[in-house]
Amino acid sequence: MLFVATPALWPAWPFLLVVRRSRGSEELGVVFDARAAGLTGYSSAVVLGNLFALPPSFDEFLAQPREVYDDAEELAAAGWCVD
User: Phi then psi for 5, rounded to 5 degrees?
Assistant: First the structure.
């Protein structure tokens, strides 16, 4: 949770790669430091997909399917962990 809540620690800032593993499968996701873009409401949102398959434009990125959580603790409780 500390890592998710501290973008300064992210090696691929402004993105943090996360994964959720369950029942032999895995889902890939990306947490985005939206404060870097002057946005609010995305600090605990997981954009579903692979970092290397993200769309080229920022507007397209924001339109991607995502799961939104209230905080890093709720994100972790949903099974997401840093990849």
Answer: -85, 0
Domain count, the chain: 1
Full residue range of the structural domain in which residue 22 is found: 2-82
What are the helix (H) ranges across the chain?
A: 2-5, 58-62, 72-77
**Residue matched to tokens 């339109």:** 63
Per-residue tens of pLDDT for the chain, all 83 residues: 888 889 999 999 999 999 999 889 999 999 998 888 888 777 789 999 999 999 999 899 989 999 999 888 999 999 999 98
Tracing tokens 């949903």 back to the chain, one arrives at 78
One-letter amino acid for residue 60 of the chain: E
